[in-house]
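Late entry, written up from scratch paper. The run itself happened at the end of the previous shift, but nothing got recorded in the book at the time, so transcribing now.
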Amino acid sequence: MNRSIIHIDMDAFFASVEIKKRPELKGKPVIVGGDGDPAKRGVVSAASYEARKFGVRSGMPLRTAYKRCPNAVFLSVDFEAYEKESDKFMAILQGYTPLVESFGLDEAFMDVTENPKGALDIAREVKRRIKAELGLIASVGIASNKLLAKMASDMNKPDGFTVIRDKDIEKVFSTMSVRKLWGVGEKTENRLNELGVKTIGELAKLPVQYLIRNFGEVFGRTLYEHSHGIDNSPVVPFYEPDSMSREITFQADTNDMHLVKRTLFELAKDVVDRLKSESYKAKTVTLKIRYSDFLTITRSKTIKEHTNSFDEIWVALTSILEKVDISRKVRLVGVKASNFTSANRVSQAL
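Output as recorded:
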């Protein structure tokens, strides 16, 4: 039986949340990054579609963004506001299926195969509720697997609603740029161009062994399967009892260590604030990184004593980060605290 997978992607999420807070900014170019001062060092975290028309992109230095769009409204990053909206967003999705896999704050996969409502009706309802209940806009992709659903949601942004049926895969992929294929970054695109491959349709015509010789066993085979619309990966909810986590997907893949560390710093602060507010201490800190080719790694460090000290958790996190390859472009970063004990129980034991 074919699966029914929906990918929901919130359009220009950070910027849209800021515009929701300040309705007078609707229709204006809005750029979110750093402390909102384009004269200072910092990078763009998000840009409204009005700002993107001027070539402003995530990961771009704020000073460059200002040169391209000097009339934009520059705002500081407000992770707390984005996380609150993200929690509401995820709660809507989880009302239809327990199989919800988040990709940061602003996008997620849903496996609705077992829901008798059907994927099309669910997707329409989810889009309507996001707009009505959150005042935000999302693009939706529907297909039989995660690869196709993700690519579908990217095809008609913003406010898109796209279905890729299995019988239409060859037609949809035939003239689509190879860069649009999930997992293909700049380096892979350049290498494929050197091999004379510019479209996914051209990639699909190459023998699997040829791709393996040029890209290695795992990635070569993945390129072959993806170019034929094949993806058997399951939708896996990112949830673990007795843990608190935060993760975020960059709008553009980056290997800017300053941006990665600053983002992790903000995520770690939020996790620590939640630990303290719920009177818990953690002993294990986990770093999650998803690279541009969607390879995902997690690395953990166990601290000597249970703690909810930001300094101790940040030291553990940075010690993990030092051992991780950031020369490759990064798509997502996350922080998790686990191995809990109640802070009250710890103090009583002492």
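Residues 343-350 have pLDDT under 50 and may be disordered.
(Scratch paper discarded after transcription.)
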